[in-house]
């Protein structure tokens, strides 16, 4: 089987995890990735998050994982002949991945615009903290400070209210940005194949985190008039201490809460409906019950009650977990001395290339033969008239809540026609999150979260519990190129729509299945919400205070699953374009989470080091933390925080200067990262005292001007106030019947060829386009009326209909 990207040449000028992960996804898809490095090599070659000592002749394990199946070419930017060689390589490239951080990429001869001028046929994908242009384009940043600015640190009230909020650990912004860079690249290539014209794909880490670490907060705020969630709390139930360890569980629906009350021997809690939302005061009683049971007992009980649950995974335990072992979710790196996650999606027929060992520095002094120099067709200037990459693709969207709709929403914004299917008996669960009482008129049409995830889709209702509904569904499948669903596997099978049944209707269809834990294995049918996916995959283990239980991020499990599923789908579309064959894409939520938590397993397997949570500190910067400012928040509380991170020695000297060179800061020991890390506690005390007498805006302006990575901890619904997001047009006004105008996020990358505006239509009303679709299927008006009369189709949720006595 030829891999989908076979014949695609990628020149990788990036450094850091984001670019390396993006090009790894492309290499897995079959692309020839040529990593061009300066003589000193990519800094990742010498990286270990645990600080493990690496032999001089060995690369770090994370680099080895991220660079599998790539080539390495060395070029010195100070040598004219080396630059000429790189330019010659670029003329034959289909894709160039670029980020700052190396002498090569920062050479003026290899700036993004210069590369595109040299190779007008190429997609030049750039990864930066804020985007290539705008008021913050040159602002110093780290993944930690952009996470603060994105609203992601306080996105879901993460942390104890009497302590600082906590960021999502594990350099998550880097990994998420890498997936987005791969998606933007694949979409651009799909368009370039139509006319041979390349472009810049400008990827922003800030926008990636604003999208992936929060739940459509701006659209919700515009529609509800209040934040989705405010304040901080430890989610109850969440990560709990058992008699012999830790366990992750939670309740995501009202029924799950009722079942939980019975499980923990408190059926009286069922009588107070307010406890579903406000139950933090029950934490001591819940903790007492948990402490009387073993982890195994609780996992068995939660499985019986169908309450979302998972053992708490980390770098040491994940490889031996029964489910991951049964599914071969962990594999041995081709180098042979550590284990790593398997790819985040699986295909039937198999599409990914076999993994090859990572290259030694300069191993491919003469890179393998590539295609001859390409010529671009026409101008690469921005054009609002350029066709959208996936125009003409029709998608049946059988997903709900967040992970599935993230996948299909991305495809909709990129031009596909997406039919979002619900039923009046079971509308999309995010419609319930409007923040309105069910007695309010049209409450199901006022959810900002639903609207943010489903703009540019068409709305169809069919009751699949009826044979009439299933018969219509068969007709819909016959006219669709793609079917996406995110139920547990048994749901589609019980309805009679397993993959073989769908293929019998449409042989060349692409079927994307997004189960929580995969299509096989002992956890196959377990319910999955973002938090238990994060618990199982190790994302929770990396998040929280070091002296307390880990804290589920409560966001990444969904958005990360949706974006990886979209990446896998785009590879499948390329395979179908080449061969005409349909594909099954199995994109489980937990496999996607294991991929972005890879560093934990790799570090433990390679070096015996167990990475863990450390509050707001991290492995890259020292000092790194949140510091309390003098001003009050909108509620009058002193709860305004500023993120500061010093990633380099030069940034430390800049910070010392901005502070006025106090005596404590001029100690020569602090001139190195090792010295600063050893004295992190003392640095925190000094910085906390300095910040405590200053307003957050003053702190940010002072340190930003000096070139120190800094960012206020932004409330999620205030993302639109950020000048950089305003400049980039990350939010667009979308007007909609019933719910009115609201600002909607776009995608975290910009195409230089356009479109200048991404949204074309608002999210659909429930069943808004049902009659239109049925008419296209040739179903006459009388039959359509009968379907509506019998409740097979409809415009109002059953729960909102007046009861009939």
Keyword list:
24 strands; seven-stranded mixed sheet; single chain; Rossmann fold; alpha/beta; 34% helix; 805 residues; formyl-coa transferase, domain 3; 13% strand
List the helices and strands and how they pair.
Layout: E1 9-13, H1 16-28, E2 32-37, H2 61-66, E3 70-74, H3 80-91, E4 95-99, H4 112-118, E5 123-128, H5 143-150, H6 172-195, E6 199-204, H7 205-212, H8 217-224, E7 239-241, E8 246-249, H9 254-263, H10 283-291, H11 295-304, E9 309-311, H12 322-326, E10 330-332, E11 339-341, E12 346-348, E13 394-398, H13 403-413, E14 417-422, H14 448-454, E15 457-461, H15 467-478, E16 482-485, H16 489-495, H17 499-505, E17 510-513, H18 530-537, H19 556-579, E18 583-586, H20 589-596, H21 598-607, E19 624-628, E20 641-645, H22 649-658, H23 673-678, H24 680-692, H25 696-706, E21 710-712, H26 723-728, E22 731-734, E23 742-745, E24 749-751, H27 770-776, H28 781-789
Parallel strand pairs: 1-2, 1-4, 2-3, 4-5, 5-6, 13-14, 13-16, 14-15, 16-17, 17-18
Antiparallel strand pairs: 6-24, 7-8, 8-9, 10-11, 12-18, 19-20, 20-21, 22-23
Please, could you describe this protein's structure?
The chain has 805 residues and is an alpha/beta fold. Among the domains are: 199 residues, Crotonobetainyl-coa:carnitine coa-transferase, domain 1 (Rossmann fold, 3-Layer(aba) Sandwich); 57 residues, no CATH class; 87 residues, formyl-coa transferase, domain 3 (2-Layer Sandwich). The chain has 28 helices and 24 strands. Strands 3-2-1-4-5-6-24 form a seven-stranded mixed β-sheet, sandwiched between helices. It has a seven-stranded mixed β-sheet with strand order 12-18-17-16-13-14-15, with helices on both faces. α1 packs across α6, α8 crosses α14 and α13 crosses α19. The longest helix is centred in the first third of the chain and has 24 residues.
């Amino acid at each position: 089987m030829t891999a989908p990207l076979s014949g695609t040449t990628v020149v990788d000028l990036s450094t850091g995890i984001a670019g390396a992960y993006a090009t790894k996804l492309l290499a897995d898809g079959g692309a020839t990735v040529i990593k061009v490095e300066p003589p000193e090599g990519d800094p990742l070659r010498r990286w270990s998050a645990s600080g493990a000592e690496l032999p001089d002749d060995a690369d770090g394990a994370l680099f080895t994982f991220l660079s599998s199946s790539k080539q390495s070419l060395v070029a010195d930017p100070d040598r004219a002949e080396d630059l000429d060689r790189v330019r010659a390589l670029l003329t034959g490239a289909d894709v160039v991945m670029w980020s700052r951080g190396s002498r090569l990429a920062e050479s003026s001869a290899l700036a993004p615009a210069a590369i595109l001028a040299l190779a007008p046929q190429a997609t030049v994908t750039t990864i930066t903290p804020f985007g290539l242009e705008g008021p913050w384009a040159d602002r110093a940043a780290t993944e930690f400070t952009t996470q603060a600015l994105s609203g992601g640190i306080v996105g879901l009230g993460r942390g104890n209210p009497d302590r600082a909020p906590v960021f999502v650990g594990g350099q998550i912004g880097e990994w998420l940005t890498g997936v987005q860079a791969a998606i933007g690249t694949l979409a651009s290539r799909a368009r370039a194949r139509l006319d041979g014209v390349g472009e810049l794909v400008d990827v922003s880490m800030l926008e990636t985190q604003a999208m992936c670490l929060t739940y459509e907060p701006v659209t919700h705020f515009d529609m509800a008039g209040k934040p989705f969630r405010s304040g901080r709390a430890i989610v109850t139930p969440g990560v709990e201490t058992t008699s012999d360890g830790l366990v992750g569980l939670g309740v995501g629906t009202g029924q799950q809460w009722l079942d939980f009350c019975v499980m923990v021997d408190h059926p009286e809690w069922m009588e107070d409906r307010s406890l579903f939302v406000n139950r933090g005061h029950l934490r001591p009683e819940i903790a007492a019950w948990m402490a009387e049971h073993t982890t195994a007992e609780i996992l068995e009980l939660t499985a019986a009650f169908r309450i979302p649950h998972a053992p708490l995974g980390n770098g040491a335990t994940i490889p031996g977990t029964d489910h991951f072992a049964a599914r071969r979710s962990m594999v041995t790196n081709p180098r042979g001395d550590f284990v790593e996650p398997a790819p985040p999606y699986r295909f039937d027929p198999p599409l990914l290339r076999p993994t090859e060992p990572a290259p030694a520095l300069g191993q491919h002094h003469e890179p393998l033969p590539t295609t001859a120099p390409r010529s671009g067709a026409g101008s690469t200037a921005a054009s609002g008239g350029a066709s959208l990459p996936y125009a003409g693709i029709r998608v049946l969207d059988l997903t709900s809540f967040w992970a599935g709709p993230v996948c299909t929403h991305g495809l909709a914004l990129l031009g596909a026609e997406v039919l979002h299917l619900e039923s009046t008996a079971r509308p999309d669960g995010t419609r319930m999150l409007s923040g309105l009482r069910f007695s309010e008129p049209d409450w199901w049409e006022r959810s900002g979260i639903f609207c943010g995830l489903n703009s540019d889709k068409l709305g169809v209702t069919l009751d699949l519990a009826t044979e009439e509904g299933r018969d219509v569904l068969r007709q819909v499948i016959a006219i669709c190129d793609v079917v996406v669903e995110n139920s547990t596997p048994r749901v589609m099978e019980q309805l009679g729509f397993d993959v073989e049944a769908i293929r019998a209707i449409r042989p060349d269809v692409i079927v994307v299945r997004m189960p929580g834990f995969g299509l096989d294995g002992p956890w196959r049918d377990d319910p999955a919400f973002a938090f238990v996916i994060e618990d199982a995959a190790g994302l929770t283990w990396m998040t929280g205070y070091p002296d307390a239980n880990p804290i589920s991020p409560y966001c990444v499990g969904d958005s990360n699953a949706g974006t990886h599923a979209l990446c896998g789908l785009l590879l499948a579309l390329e395979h179908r374009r080449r061969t005409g064959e349909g594909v099954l894409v199995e994109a489980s939520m937990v496999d996607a989470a294991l991929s972005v938590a890879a560093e934990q397993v790799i570090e433990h397997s390679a070096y015996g080091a167990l990475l863990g949570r450390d509050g707001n500190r991290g492995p890259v910067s020292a000092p790194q933390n949140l510091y309390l400012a003098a001003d009050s928040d909108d509620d009058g509380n002193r709860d305004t925080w500023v993120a500061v991170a010093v990633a380099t020695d030069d940034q430390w000297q800049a910070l010392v200067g901005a502070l006025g060179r106090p005596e404590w800061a001029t100690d020569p020991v602090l001139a190195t990262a090792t010295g600063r890390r050893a004295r992190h506690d003392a640095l925190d005390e000094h910085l906390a005292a300095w910040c405590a007498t200053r307003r957050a805006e003053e702190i940010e302006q002072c340190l930003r001007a000096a070139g120190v990575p800094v960012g206020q901890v932004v409330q999620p619904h205030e993302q639109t106030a950020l000048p950089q997001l305003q400049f980039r047009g990350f939010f667009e006004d979308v007007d909609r019947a019933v719910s009115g105008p609201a600002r909607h996020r776009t995608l975290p990358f910009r195409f230089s060829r356009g479109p200048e505006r991404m949204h074309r239509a608002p999210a659909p009303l429930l069943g808004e386009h049902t009659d239109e679709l049925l008419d296209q299927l040739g179903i006459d008006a009388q039959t359509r009326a009968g379907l509506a009369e019998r409740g097979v189709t409809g415009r109002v949720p059953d729960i909102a209909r007046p009861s009939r006595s």
